[in-house]
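Example protein as discussed:

>
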Amino acid sequence: MILDKQNLFENGLAASGLTVATTPSTDVIDFGVDRDIMANEPVELFIQIGAALLSATGTLEWTFQTSADNSTYYTVLRSPATMPQADLTAGMILANLRTTLRSPTQRRQGLGVRYARLQWIVGTAVFTAGTLTAGLVLDVQDWRAYANNYTVS
């Protein structure tokens, strides 16, 4: 997996900067013009924790959103659950998902996509430490080493 700075929503975001509220990502990806760029082609959404997120009782959710005009955003994908602080450990991959750029509403209304962003939803209490990296990638890091099914004698 190759991370391209132009396709990152966050690059080591300090979670302590997020308030108990809904906060848009630091960066918005601008695809250049309002058009059907990869309208029905899947992209890979990648979200990973760098340093563990610390909080007394904080929770985290996220949504992936796209827009034609950078003001009206439609949610394409959201986190499957509210994640408590205890689950937000260093190196954890929060999202490693294939998705399209347009929401069902955008497809029905024939709206193009020019902008994409993440939205962070922090609940209960703020985070005192931790970092997040997120963006769109060509393919995700999903290689795993498995035990050999043979022995050498």
Notes: The mean pLDDT is 88. The chain has one domain: 5-137. The longest strand covers residues 113-123.
